[in-house]
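Quarterly update from the structural biology core.
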Amino acid sequence: MYNLDLQTILHAFEHYPASELELSCASFTIKIKRNSGENLPHVQTAEITKAETVEHRKTQDTSIITSPIVGTFYLTPAPDAPPHVQVGDAVDSGSVICTIEAMKMMNQLEAEYPCEIVRVLAGQGSMVEFGQPLFEVKRR
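Predicted structure, tokenized:
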């Protein structure tokens, strides 16, 4: 059995002339394709540390909180539970604002600063990409 992490696989794919790569096992399948005419894979990668869980983009008087990982977006901690946050909620720094499921692991995203939820930009149960806007917020 091979023990490879995703970064190692992507690094190898970047330096190998293949145009596609598919890896499968019992619990998941990974498919990587190069953009036509380019030598880079069609996958974004990033080193994510605990201190860098949320990226902020300034838009007028609001900020955008983006997804730190690829996964499934949930506003609720469980199917029958109330949402972590709703539009108009005041959120303290460190409060959980959503859950993102990635590879069967539930990752709770916390607010890095006090804010008010202005808009929820992702749908319940939708797939989100790294860097995709999730919430528009107003700093308090």
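The mean pLDDT is 78.
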